[in-house]
Every structure is written in structure tokens, then in C-alpha cells.
Amino acid sequence: MAVKIKLKRLGKIRAPHYRIIIADSRTRRDGRAIEEIGLYHPVQNPSRIEVDADRVAYWLGVGAQPTEPVLAILKKTGDWQKFKGEPAPAPLLQPEPKPDHSGLFEAVSAKAGDEPKGEAITQKTKKADKKDESDSSESTEG
């Protein structure tokens, strides 16, 4: 049985994400997998790549062949170079940490602390006022 390391597509039409899987070479692209060893989200900036290096090393050691897209991913993570005994590539880009919104809120509220605090809602108009306006508009027309 020939074993391949390939991508299993998930997600919506224009928002794909993939799982890196070990599967028999005769199975369909999204068919049954022997094992899932990683994730690949190409839409995020920078792309999110997570690979279980120990399992990749094991499967490459027992003869599993990566497909071309998976080979490119393994070269980016450095797992292919480690398997071949070559020098490691530059580290992957990591996304910037998201700002702490509670900290921003605290800073803005401290800055505006001496301003008067009024209600943030608009008062509703009373139904009687609306009736008076409609009555006055009818009398001016006639």
C-alpha cells in the first residue's frame, strides 16, 4: 500500500482551509484518512501552518510520500530539511498579537474621566406630542 501525505480540503467556497493527512494514495482527496498531522489556513495573513513534527518524521521515515503542496509546506516549516539532513530555513512569520480591547477602553475612559457623564440614549418622543403635530398639520392644509 502506497501512503501519501496530502491535503484534505475543508471550508466554504472562497474560504478554504486544509488538514494535512496521511492517507492511502488510492483514496479520494477528502476521503478517509489514516491520521491527521497538521493544519494549513492559506487565507489568513500570514498563512497559519501547524504541523506535528514528530509524526511527520515518523511517516517520512516509513516511506510516506508528500504531494507537491505538502512538500512546499514541509519545506517552509523545516521538517523536510530535518528529514534530509539539510540546514533549516528561516522561521515562519507569526501573526501580530491582537490588541487588548479592555486595556484600550480603560485608557480612553481614564482620559475622559473629568468630562460630565450624561446618558448615552436619546429620549423617546411621547405619543401625545406626535398627535399634536399631526392635528396642527391637518388644520393648516384645510
TrEMBL record:
Keyword DNA-binding belongs to the record: no
- Asked whether the keyword Acetylation is assigned, the reply is no
Alphabetically sorted, this entry's keywords are: Ribonucleoprotein, Ribosomal protein
Q: Please, one GO biological process term?
A: translation
* Domain of life per record: Bacteria
Region Disordered, residue ranges: 84-142
Entries under Pfam families matching the protein = Ribosomal_S16
Record-level GO cellular component terms: cytoplasm; ribonucleoprotein complex; ribosome
Q: Which SUPFAM superfamilies match?
A: Ribosomal protein S16
Q: Which family does it belong to?
A: Belongs to the bacterial ribosomal protein bS16 family.
Q: Which HAMAP family match?
A: Ribosomal_bS16
**Protein name from the UniProt record:** Small ribosomal subunit protein bS16
Q: Which source organism?
A: Streptomyces evansiae
Provide the taxonomic classification: Bacteria, Bacillati, Actinomycetota, Actinomycetes, Kitasatosporales
